[in-house]
Amino acid sequence: MTSIVLVHPEIPHNTGAVGRTCVALDMELVLVRPYGFTLNDKQLKRAGLDYWQHVRLAEFGSWEELLVERAPRADQLFLFEEFGETSFYEPDYPEDAYLVFGSETKGLPQAIVAAHRERLFHLPMVTDKVRSLNLSNTVTAVAYQALRGQI
User: Fold this and answer.
1) Does pTM surpass 0.90?
2) What's the pLDDT tens digit per position in 71-95?
3) Closest CA to 106 of 84, 135, 130
4) Is the Cα torsion angle 40, 43, 47, 49 positive or negative in sign?
5) Domain 3-147 adopts which CATH fold?
6) Using an 8 Å Cβ cutoff, are 142 and 99 in contact?
7) Element (H, E) at 20
8) Is 78:121 a contact under the CB 8 Å cutoff?
9) Is 146 helix (H, G, I), strand (E, B) or coil?
10) How many CA atoms lie within 13 A of 89 on its CB side?
11) Of 20, 32, 59, 147, whose CB count within 10 A is highest?
12) DSSP code of 8?
């Protein structure tokens, strides 16, 4: 099963929207603490609507905890940053991929980026008038690309 991993998410309605996407695409939502909200936040529930109850949710206290417990292979990890050298269109995503995203304001922590530099990907933007895309929109675009050819 493909997993969407949000490292240190800050905005509850983005996480709620990502959870809804996970339900729609039968993906797991993995959250790595700390969060900028609580899981009973009304904005989180509002964005997730009545789908939140169907989210397959896993929580980890840290990135290191996730790596120890899950022990993903290098070829399962796909980290997304605006400065990633490789387009998200290029890889073949395995069915057990971990699609990893950082917080809305800071992105992925530098230690994670440094440890997985060869697994960094970006979503191309045609214009330089936009610095970044909304997290939930980015996750949805990546999730559908990862499923291409599988559904």
Assistant:
1) yes
2) 999 999 999 999 899 999 999 999 9
3) 135
4) positive
5) Alpha/beta knot (3.40.1280)
6) yes
7) helix 12-25
8) yes
9) helix
10) 3
11) 32
12) S
Q: Residue 82 in contact with residue 121, Cβ under 8 Å?
A: no
Tokens linked to 140: 């949805």
Looking at 1-10, 31-40, 137-146, which range is the least confident one? 31-40
Give the length of the chain. 151
| Beta-carbon count within 10 A of 117 CB | 12
Task: Give the separation between CA 54 and CA 128, rounded to whole angstroms.
Answer: 38
Closest CA to 111 of 67, 76, 73: 67
Helix 12-25 vs helix 135-147: crossing angle, to nearest 10: 20
Residue in 99, 124, 77 with CA at minimum distance from that of residue 28: 99
C-alpha R_g of the chain: 14
Residue corresponding to tokens 């809305």: 104
Domain boundaries, the chain: 3-147
List the structure tokens of 46: 């509002």
Interatomic CA distance for residues 71 and 116, integer angstroms: 14
Residues 6+ positions from 66 with CB-CB distance below 8 Å: 5, 30, 32, 60
CA distance 129 to 32: 31
